[in-house]
Design brief:
With 186 residues, the chain is α+β, with helices and mostly antiparallel strands. 46% of the residues lie in helices and 23% in strands. The chain has a six-stranded antiparallel β-sheet, with helices on both faces. Helix 7 crosses helix 8. The chain is globular, with a radius of gyration of 17 Å. InterPro entries: ATP11 (IPR010591). Belongs to the ATP11 family. This is ATP11 protein, putative.
Length: 186
Amino acid sequence: MLLTKILLNMRNSIKLNDIMKLQLLKKLSSKDIIEIWKSKNNEKIYSTVMNSEKYMKIKTNSKICKNFIIPIKFNENYYNIFLQFNEKIILFTSLDYIQKFGIKNTNPIIYMTFYDELVKTHDLILLRTNILNNHLNKLQVINLIENTLKFYLDFNLFQWVKLFNLNPKQFNYKQYLNQNKHIFNI
């Protein structure tokens, strides 16, 4: 498992009530909640939302396939971000860091939390991405999150994730990159 010490600390802070007053939120319309939630965006936080159907699909797929890599455009090149699902959290780190320091000695550069406390009342899952350093700029983080969600939601794209996790010897990185250049903008 990636980053166990850090993950233990994060698990203590995955309650929506620690960020916002849940009882007050429940009284608002979905539209108002979304507006308030997205207003929390800043240079170190990216917030977005999804419905329960998408969340359940991601939850199911991430139980089967916890890990994946997403290339991120960097100047004229790209580098790979390794991601790992752990219940309601996704940890992201540089694949270069893992290769250099080992998986147990690598710190995340980003983590995203799924808050499902409003699913029964509003059919809303709130997603909050915390940017822990300046390794990626905000646009790169947004692209990373959007692409991660695409690969775990879309049936055809998820086949790459399955191959990476369930049959890694058959995973052809160059083929993966070439067939998905339009998604990665590289």
